[in-house]
Design brief:
This protein is of the alpha/beta class. The protein is built from 13 helices and five strands. It has a five-stranded mixed beta sheet with strand order 1-3-2-4-5, with helices on both faces. Strand 4, helix 5 and strand 5 form a beta-alpha-beta unit. Helix 4 packs across helix 5.
Length: 355
Amino acid sequence: MDHRNPDGDAIDLALIRTRSADPARRLGSLVYNPGGPGGSGLETVTQIADRLGDVLDRYDLVSWDPRGVGRSTAVRCGNSALPERVPRTDAEWAALDSLSARFTDLCAAESGRLLPHIGLFDSARDIDLVRAAVGDEKLNYLGVSYGGQLGAAYATLFPHRVGRMVLDAPGSPLRNFRQSLLDQSEASERALRRLLGYCTSKSECPLGLSESDALARIDEFLARTDSAPPPTTGNGAPLTRPIAVAALGIGIAAPESWPQLITALAKAFAGDGAELATYADLFTGRRPDGSYSNFAAINTAANCADYPDTYTAAELRALLPTFAEAAPHFGELTALRLLECTRWPIHGVGRAPIG
């Protein structure tokens, strides 16, 4: 659990491997991390395998549930729900602050001993144990998003063990939590415009005749989710604005699935929010059978361990206009994530300089 105390408590890491298709030409293992923080390698490795093609002729594909995730020793905090709305009144801010405090208390009670050891460099050191477990002298690695930062941290710690490495969209490891979320919000706004441009460049776009027309329909739809959220048949709660915005944020980050996202949006415009809501399930950790992964818990735990900056509810309330101006559709709801770390017992212990 604590790499500085290898004789102390231990944790389990769950690994998965598929062998190369051509053992005679095998070059080694390719270790994959989907990012997050908190993404499960065991649950996503088949999806990446379908996209790697001929690479898997020469490499075993290996992934794992990082510490705190899924089938490894996991952070447990109970289920986490998206807020019903952006708070506006003192009472709404107090209620959200209280909800965040209860979530923190649950995490500390159920996983307190693990929380100081859940950061970026803890997981990067675990990667070297994965490399050794599969018998490779050098690490060949594919990391996406936060997984890219994991790869950079590994290269900082073990430069002599780096083989081939692809770090896909890792972002800057130098940001604080506030800047990280602001950057994400701004990037989501740009991606939304690209989605609408992609749709309206086709002969038939169900979202609108032009990019500006489609954006106006998005705005009209989101306004309706405030007053009359559409149902999500078979998916539980109605499609509120936070669920719709979370779904959009997840969906626009994967251009290869934009046709499906456009179809889901068109259905939501027509009053059926079920398909669109499934995108938000990726963030909350809700599975098709109604059970939940621990993604929300480990994502919060890793972010709070990694970032040193914290904000009170009053400070966050004052920051909302900055987020709203930078990202009108995504900024405010994204900014609310800063409240997750307000009372968290661990801050800023998970990272070291990357170079």
